[in-house]
Write a structure and sequence with these properties.
Elements lengths: L4 E5 L4 E5 L6 H9 L9 H20 L5 H15 L18 H18 L12 H5 L5 H37 L4 E6 L2 E7 H22 L21 H15 L9 H6 L2 H27 L10 E2 L17 H25 L9 H25 L5 E2 L1 H10 L8 H4 L1 H14 L3 H7 L5 H7 L21 H4 L1
Antiparallel strand pairs: 1-2, 3-4, 5-6
Helix pairs in contact: 1-4, 2-3, 2-4, 2-6, 2-8, 3-4, 4-6, 6-7, 6-12, 7-10, 10-11, 10-12, 11-12
C-alpha cells in the first residue's frame, strides 16, 4: 500500500510529512538535524512538558484568552498523551541544538494534531489548532523547558531518596547485627587500632544519610520555576492574568508547591540550580564508591585477602576459574559512580557556558542529570537488595587479624609512653612475639592492668575523663 503524505511549511520551507504522523515539520527537521544519541526524550520529561501545556490551556480558557472549545481539545489531547498514547511521535533526540525548542515544538505539534482530530479535522490543519498560537499560547521554550526539567528532577529524585532511605536502614541493621564483632581498623591500608565491625557499617549508614540530606536540600531550588517568564524574563506576550495564575495552576496539577523566582531574568538565564543538584549527586556517588571499595577490600580473598566479611554470591565470577565469585554488585555501583562524576563535569561545563539571557545547553544538562538520577536509583536498589542485606561476618577471621596485629600497642601510650610502645611494636613485628607477652616480660605493667588496658572492646569507645581507656571488660558491661 502506497504511503500517503501531507505537506507542511515553516519559515525554512516545505516538507512532506507521513500522513499517519502526529508530529509536524519542526519535529521532522529536528529528527534529521539531531541524530545524536539515539535516545529520545525522557518519559518523565515528556509528561512534565505536557503537564505545563495542560496548565497553560486551563488558565488561558479560564480567563478568556483561548476559546473554550480549543482549550478543551488541547486539554483532552494532553490527557491522551499523558496516558501513554502517541509516544512514538515524540521523535526528537534528547540532545539537540536550540535550547530545547525542538522538544517543545515536538510536544506542541503532537498535541495540536491530536486536538485537531478531536475537533473533527485532519492532521496538519493548523487553522483549527495551531502548535504555536494555541498549544504554546503565553509560553516560550525558554520557560517551558527549564520548568519541565525541574519538575522531572523532582520526580526522579523522589525515587532515589526512597532507595537511599532503604539503604541507610539496611546498613543500620547490619551495624547492629555486627556490633559485637571486633575487627582491625586500618589507615593507609596499614594496621591501625581495633574497632567493631558494626562501627564500620554504622559509618556507611551515616554517610548515606548525610548524602540524602544534602540532595534533599538541593532540591529546594527545583521548586522555583520560571514559567511565565517567556523568552528572557520580561514575560513578553504573557497576559497579566496568565502570568498571575500559571504557577498556581501548575502547582495544583503537579501536586507540588511551586514558586516563581523573584528575578525572572536570573531564573531564565542561569542554570546553576541544576549544577547544585548534580554536585549533590556527585558527592553521593563519591560516598557510595568509597563504601563499595571498602566492601570489596573487606571481602577480598576469601583465603588470601582480608576475608572479614562475605558478600552474597550473585553469579559465577569467571569463565575459566571454577568456584570464583566476584563482588559484582559493588563493582557495578563503582561504575555508576564513574558515570555520575563524568556527568557532573559535563553539567558543570554546560552551566558555565551559558551566554547573556539564556543557556542554550539545557538539553545536555537534562540528558546527563536525568541519567545520573536514574542510574543512581538503580545502583542503590541493587546494592541494598543484592549485596548489603546478605552480607555475613567472618568473626573468626576478624578476631585473627586483631590478635596478630600490633595496633593495640597504641593503647599503651598513656601508660608507658610513645617511644617505649614503638619499641615494643617493632620487636613484635620482628619476632612475632605478642605485644602482651613482651610488656609482661619487660615488667612494664602487671597482668591485671594490662588485661584491662588491652581489652579490645574498651579500645573501640572514647576514653574516660583521665585520657585513658575506661575499665569495663566488655561493651555490654559498659552499657
Amino acid at each position: 500500500m502506497k504511503k500517503e503524505f501531507r505537506t507542511e511549511s515553516d519559515s525554512v520551507g516545505q516538507l512532506p510529512i507521513d500522513e499517519d504522523a502526529y508530529y509536524g515539520i519542526q519535529s521532522l527537521r529536528a529528527k534529521v538535524n539531531f541524530d545524536i544519541t539515539g535516545t529520545k526524550l525522557s518519559l518523565p520529561f515528556i509528561k512534565n512538558i505536557v503537564l505545563i501545556k495542560k496548565a497553560a490551556a486551563k488558565v488561558n480558557a479560564d480567563y478568556g484568552l483561548l476559546a473554550k472549545e480549543k482549550a478543551d481539545a488541547i486539554i483532552a489531547a494532553c490527557d491522551i498523551l499523558l496516558h501513554g498514547k502517541h509516544r512514538k511521535d515524540i521523535v526528537v533526540d534528547a540532545v539537540q541544538g536550540g535550547a530545547g525548542t525542538s522538544a517543545n515544538m515536538n510536544i506542541n505539534e503532537v498535541l495540536a494534531n491530536i486536538a485537531i482530530e478531536i475537533l473533527g479535522g485532519k492532521k496538519g490543519d493548523y487553522s483549527l489548532i495551531s502548535p504555536n498560537d494555541h498549544v504554546n499560547m503565553e509560553q516560550s521554550t525558554n520557560d517551558v523547558i527549564p520548568t519541565a526539567g525541574k519538575l522531572t528532577v523532582l520526580d526522579l529524585a523522589a525515587g532515589l531518596l526512597a532507595e537511599l532511605d532503604r539503604l541507610a536502614k539496611t546498613l543500620r541493621k547490619k551495624a547492629e547485627e555486627f556490633d559485637g564483632i571486633l575487627k582491625m581498623g586500618r589507615t593507609q591500608l596499614q594496621d591501625a587500632v581495633p574497632m567493631r565491625l558494626g562501627q564500620a557499617f554504622g559509618a556507611f549508614a551515616t554517610s548515606v544519610e548525610r548524602s540524602a540530606a544534602r540532595l534533599e536540600n538541593s532540591l529546594g531550588e527545583m521548586r522555583s520555576v520560571n514559567i511565565g517568564a517567556t523568552a528572557i524574563g520580561t514575560a513578553i506576550n504573557a497576559k497579566a492574568v496568565y502570568f498571575t495564575h500559571i504557577t498556581e495552576e501548575l502547582s495544583a496539577l503537579k501536586g507540588e508547591k511551586l514558586t516563581r523566582p523573584h528575578d525572572l531574568f536570573d531564573g531564565t538565564q542561569n542554570v546553576d540550580s541544576f549544577a547544585s543538584v548534580s554536585g549533590a549527586l556527585k558527592t553521593l556517588a563519591i560516598n557510595l564508591g568509597k563504601m563499595c571499595n571498602d566492601l570489596r577490600l573487606m571481602s577480598s580473598g576469601p583465603r588470601t585477602g582480608l576475608g572479614e566479611i562475605t558478600l552474597p554470591a550473585r553469579q559465577n565470577g569467571s569463565s575459566i576459574m571454577p568456584g570464583k565469585i566476584n563482588p559484582v554488585i559493588p563493582e557495578v555501583v563503582n561504575q555508576v559512580v564513574f558515570l555520575v562524576i563524568g556527568h557532573d563535569v559535563t553539567i558543570t561545563m554546560a552551566a558555565e557556558a551559558g551566554q547573556l539571557e539564556l543557556n542554550a545547553f539545557e538539553p545536555i544538562i537534562f540528558y546527563q542529570l536525568f541519567e545520573s538520577l536514574r542510574s543512581l536509583t538503580a545502583a542503590v536498589r541493587t546494592l541494598t537488595d543484592n549485596c548489603i542485606e546478605g552480607i555475613t561476618a567472618n568473626e573468626e577471621r576478624c578476631s585473627e587479624w586483631v590478635n596478630r596485629s600490633v595496633g593495640i600497642v597504641t593503647a599503651l601510650n598513656p601508660y608507658i609512653g610513645y617511644k617505649k610502645a614503638a619499641e615494643i611494636a617493632k620487636e613484635s613485628l620482628k619476632t612475632g612475639e605478642p605485644i602482651k607477652s613482651i610488656v609482661l616480660r619487660l615488667g612494664l605493667m602487671d597482668a591485671a592492668k594490662l588485661d584491662e588496658v588491652l581489652n579490645p572492646y574498651v579500645l573501640t569507645e572514647p576514653c574516660g575523663d583521665d585520657g585513658k581507656n575506661p575499665a569495663p571488660a566488655s561493651k555490654k558491661e559498659a552499657e
